[in-house]
Design a protein that fits this description.
CATH class of the largest domain: Mainly Alpha
CATH superfamily of the largest domain: Ribosome-recycling factor
Distance between the termini: 51 Å
Number of strands: 6
Largest sheet: 4 strands, antiparallel
CATH architecture of the largest domain: Orthogonal Bundle
Helix content: 55-70%
Number of domains: 2
Shape: elongated
Radius of gyration: 22 Å
Strand content: 15-25%
Length: 185
């Protein structure tokens, strides 16, 4: 019974950390990544479709992303979708493919992105704390229904707290490594 609560708590906290890592992948660091355009949807014959499913998206150098659509008639649609996504660059359409030239980041921009990363980490910590509360509530419910003793309840809540502490520590280490990545020139 208690082991199920521990496993569920670990699993849910793991999902929160995975979501944080996905969020971090959309942040710009010193070099450009295709993750920046992952959230862009293109109108593909009336269906919103991920950009990487209507063409190839490649990083050609540290500051350039090249997008080659599989169908030429999609160039204008892709260009419009990029402009609407407001990712900080204007697409350059040369008739065959679209290039996105990202300027080098200033120190201010890097600090701003670090702030965003800290905000994302804080949201992940809040999610982890909410999961801890759910786990503790389940333990208290078992104690209230006399399925476990008061001592077992206390030990179980301590175990849930240990799981929480490990998850928070992982969030902190993920944040600090991302921070180093962002600030590296």
């Amino acid at each position: 019974m208690l082991n199920e609560i521990y496993e569920h708590t670990k699993e849910q906290m793991g999902k929160s950390i995975d979501a944080l890592k996905r969020d971090f992948s959309t942040l710009r660091t010193g070099k450009v990544s295709t993750n920046i355009v992952d959230s862009i949807k293109v109108d593909y014959y009336g269906t919103p479709t991920a950009l990487n499913q209507v063409g190839s998206v490649l990083v050609t150098d540290a500051t350039t992303i090249s997008i080659t659509p599989w169908e030429k008639n999609l160039l204008a649609t892709i260009e419009k979708a990029i402009q609407e996504a407001n990712i900080g660059v204007n697409p350059n359409n040369d008739g065959d493919f679209i290039k996105l030239f990202f300027p080098a980041m200033t120190a201010e921009q890097r600090q701003e992105i670090v702030k965003q990363a800290k905000g994302m980490a804080e949201k992940a910590k809040i999610a982890v704390r909410n999961i801890r509360k759910d786990g503790n509530d389940k333990v208290k419910k078992l104690e209230k229904s006399k399925d476990i003793s008061e001592d077992e309840s206390k030990r179980a809540q301590d175990e849930v707290q240990k799981i929480t502490d490990n998850s928070i520590a992982e969030i902190e280490s993920t944040l600090s490594s991302k921070e180093v990545d962002i600030l590296k020139v």
